[in-house]
Amino acid sequence: MSQKASFAQWISGARPRTLPNAIAPVIAGTGAAAWLGAAVWWKALLALTVAVALIIGVNFANDYSDGIRGTDDVRTGPLRLVGSRLASPRAVLSAAVVALSIGALAGLALALVSAPWLVAVGAACIAGAWLYTGGAKPYGYSGFGEVAVFVFFGLVAVLGTQYTQALRVDWVGAALAVGVGALSSAVLVANNLRDIDTDEPAGKITLAVRLGDARTRVLFQLLVALTGAMTLALMRATPWAAIGLIATPLAVRAIAPVRSRRGGAQLIPVLRDTGLTMLVWAAVEAVALAYA
């Protein structure tokens, strides 16, 4: 019988450390809109509501799907509600549905005041959130999770935020989208690197399982470096974009445990530091573009 999870455990189950993956794209997209002279603060808040609700929804959906499959029965990472028997699968599924519904309603409102065809994009995002670990053939179990994160929390989130405010996108928005998407994917790479030993026996064949430990560590570093390359690209728009390099010490701190071949729980800080790198990079680049 499932125990009753405390409020603090429900908050932990929502995985607050992943919130930078939702917040950073909206900041970056708003900065890209400001670069075009078209930032709209209330649309940015609606986009933020969508992004935060979706990432909480996908986290609970992941908790539910992995929990009922037994993937989380043995793990070294943060708390999982179903796998730890702290909450029933039905309760966690309900939390996922509520969060995704909030995201859907906010996204519908944003689409209706911007471009109605964005409703289809929102539907694709919700489907992607559920099918990551849900359904008969979850793509997260086949090694496509990092690609989906790059697309949804990088390209779609950043360019979608820019488009809803400016009603167009440009190469500056695309560069920001690639930079944010690379770091967002790097967070998942680090997470799956930590879980290689438990995911493979559970039948969760992530990209990290496919690549193996050594090549996954190289991939992580390449993704972080790609964001650095986007900083240099953005300097073509304004020299002030160089302040994005202020995130370098955080990036170096994130990379250090990966380079030194740390494993298990020792990789948990990598997720935090990569998320902080993404948040700081997006924020300073947005400010640079807004005031250039």
* Content of β-strand: under 5%
Report how far the terminal alpha carbons are from each other: 59 Å
Q: Give the tally of β-strands.
A: 0
**In terms of per-residue confidence, which ranges show pLDDT below 50 for 5 or more consecutive residues?**
none
Task: Provide the residue-averaged pLDDT.
Answer: 92
Q: Helix fraction?
A: 55-70%
The oligomerization state is: single chain
Rough outline:
globular
Number of helical segments? 12
Radius of gyration: 18 Å
Structural category: mainly alpha
Q: What can be said about the biggest beta sheet? A: none
Order of helices and strands: HHHHHHHHHHHH
Keywords: Cell membrane, Membrane, Menaquinone biosynthesis, Transferase, Transmembrane, Transmembrane helix
Family: Belongs to the MenA family. Type 1 subfamily.
EC number: 2.5.1.74
Protein name: 1,4-dihydroxy-2-naphthoate octaprenyltransferase
Features:
0% strand; 292 residues; globular; UBIAD1; mainly alpha
Layout of helices and strands:
Elements: H1 7-13, H2 19-35, H3 41-69, H4 89-112, H5 118-131, H6 145-166, H7 171-194, H8 196-199, H9 207-211, H10 213-234, H11 248-259, H12 268-290
